[in-house]
Amino acid sequence: MGIERLFIANRGEIAVRIVRAAQSLGIHTIQAHSEADAEMLAVRMADEAVCIGPAQAAKSYLDVDAVVKAAKDAGADAVHPGYGFLAESPAFARAVVEAGMIFVGPSADTIQSMGDKVSARQAAGTAGVPVVPGSDGRVDDMETAAEIAERIGYPVMIKASAGGGGRGIRIARTPEDLAKFAPQARQEAQAAFGDGGIYIEKVIPQPRHIEVQVLADGTRAVHCFERECSLQRRRQKVWEEAPAFGLPEATRQAMCDAAVDLAEAVEYLGAGTVEYLYDARADKFYFIEMNTRIQVEHPVTEMITGLDLVALMIRVAGGEPLPVSQEEITLNGHAIEVRLNAEDPLKKFMPFPGVVGTLDLPESDGIRVDHFLYKGYQIPPFYDSLIGKLIVHAPTREAAIDKMAGALDAVRIDGLKTTIPLHKALAQSADVRAGRIHTQWLEPWLDAGNLTTDQTGGAS
Questions:
Q1: Active site includes 293?
Q2: Disulfide-capable partner of 185 in 66, 158, 258, 406 (CB 3.0 to 4.6 Å)?
Q3: Catalytic pick from 170, 252, 293, 397?
């Protein structure tokens, strides 16, 4: 079958990444853009570009009808959704296919099944993947919620069934908390996702967040090892590593095998990520969700395996059987990625959509920068503040942290405030270097005043 003309329904650094991968395969690229993104780097790089609407995402990148029509009118035979926006929308995937094009990702049914946290938990359980103790399905009344919480024991987490990005989540430590927070979680979930469904899970104290990258062709799946994503602020990842540190080999293998089993059970197609909470004290892991798209942090996996995940997902979408076997995927060294956001970390991470001045980014052996910047570019104020990712690779974790510290010192992005000071401070942290971190570590560390101008050498 093959793909000849690929429509890229996203923006920013992931759009640049997809353009490069597609062009490396000899595929003609068509870049979608809003009116505010007419000058973005991916537009300049692509073979052609199409405006899909005004600056507001709801009227451009999130408008299913507008995106599908633009792709069809441009003569595309496939659409790549990237991450965010419509990437995990079953309605979008279905509309693309119904319009006679290939959706670069899993089927709409798989996206829907894995996107609903309750059905994803059920699928994981059926595939033999450990899940966090909690409700078997949606919880529709307070009496049932209270019974479940009492059975599994407080504290419990109230989570949105259709949630993501940390929205619709509350922690209840008492029955009174549950009665107060469950309606709030429902309301937030309804507003954010158009679905007010919730479920209840046991809180795992101070867990680590470990995820496994999978690739599949609808029949066979392989894993590309795991990533450590425990450094999070407001449930958003800020620093990612591959592989996870200090993980017993048997546990790593069990995590990876379980991810492959789940991917094959749901007939997964493309690149996906199976996410776990890991209780290091008990050496137990629990499935939390599956992301049915390419992840922001995919480059660390590419650095330790030598694979081009984006190119591979395009190839299997075009009908190729998975071109790599599990035995061919080997782990080499350690990689770290930090997310560069146009925010001022010294002013409560206030967004800073300025104009890029002098731009100097380190690019050498073992250092990679995925971004969409150029001198004179105005960062639009309408979208996520992510402007790029700095990735390093070294033989060991200690060497990778040292390399990251040096690479951060070499970055120069004039005209913007960025999160570089945060990452410099993290690279200096004894806890980070020793691996004494978990998903709730970062925010108290920030609240304790560990991020200062003096420590980081300024916030520019």
A1: yes
A2: 158
A3: 293
